[in-house]
Amino acid sequence: MYTGPAAAYIGAALWVGTWWPLIIAPLPVLATHRWVIVPEEEYLKRRFGAEYERYQSQVRRWL
Amino acid sequence: MKAAAVVRAEVPVAGVIPRPKRGERARCGSEERLIPLGLAAAAVRSSWGGKLSMDTEFTFARRRTMSDSPEPSAATRESGAAVRFPAPPLLFAAPLAATLALHKWLPLPLPGRPVTRTVGAVLTIAGLALSGSGAATFRRNRTTVVPHHPVSTLVTKGP
């Protein structure tokens, strides 16, 4: 779900032709990981248990 | 000491068994649960998804085995992830808007035009399409994309 916004973010920087978004690109990625993805994964483990852990072990997080 | 009932449920669980009376043990197969009698009806209902009929019988609606994960708590089912952002894409949109504004004020242009422009346009459209397709998949599976809302279905197939 977050690969799309990340791709669009980098794409927009290239489209406009500026370094600035690319320089700070790790910040939104890290913020999304820390403040969205980690809490979501913890919730889904509680909510779906082994079913989610099995899915998580088979699928990479970003790509 | 509190009265308790041991309820054994056959795996797969299906059908109807009599409700255990106070001090009795109800057995129906290989799964065994020790439940205070006063809570037996509610526990069986929440553990196996069964319905308690008015004539004091349990009707089981779905299968559950001892190897299954513990049933999530009511709090877990009724709340979503502890994500404080109502719209996580803002974590990308806000810095992008800020840095594009910064570029107007303090330009730091990329080399390689117009190739970067074309690659950027393709990447932007593909990224937005991927996001839209993911959200549509969630909607088709009747669950939410909003992280702090409760999730009803684990979606494992998508774009």
Structural account:
Chain A is mainly α and 63 residues long. Chain A has one domain (3-58). Chain A has helices at residues 3-16, 20-23, 26-48, 50-58. In chain A, helix 3 (26-48) packs antiparallel against helix 4 (50-58). The longest helix of chain A is centred in the middle third of the chain and has 23 residues, at 26-48. The radius of gyration of chain A is 15 Å and the shape is elongated. The relative contact order of chain A is 0.12. The model of chain A has no long low-confidence stretch (mean pLDDT 92). Chain B has 159 residues and is an alpha+beta fold. Chain B has 2 domains: 4-60, no CATH class; 80-140, no CATH class. In chain B, the strands form 2 sheets. Chain B has a 3-stranded antiparallel beta sheet with strand order 2-5-4, with helices on one face. In chain B, strands 1-3 form a two-stranded antiparallel ribbon. The longest helix of chain B has 26 residues, at 115-140. Chain B is elongated. Residues 1-18 and 23-68 of chain B have low confidence and may be disordered.
What is the helical fraction of chain A, as a range of percent?
over 70%
Mean pLDDT of chain B: 67
Radius of gyration of chain B: 27 Å
Overall tally of structural domains of chain B: 2
Distance between the termini of chain A: 10 Å
Outline of chain B? elongated
Topology overview:
The complex is a heterodimer of chains A (63) and B (159).
Chain A (H helix, E strand, L loop, with lengths): L2 H14 L3 H4 L2 H23 L1 H9 L5
Helix pairs in contact in A: 3-4
Chain B lengths: L3 E6 L5 E4 L12 E6 L3 H9 L2 E2 L4 E4 L13 H5 L11 H16 L9 H26 L19
Antiparallel strand pairs in B: 1-3, 2-5, 4-5
Brief summary of the model shown:
Chain A has 63 residues and is mostly helical. Chain A has one domain (3-58). Chain A has helices at residues 3-16, 20-23, 26-48, 50-58.
Notable traits:
heterodimer, A: 63 residues, mainly alpha, 0% strand, B: 159 residues, alpha+beta, 2 domains, 3-stranded antiparallel beta sheet, two-stranded antiparallel sheet, 5 strands, 35% helix, disordered N terminus
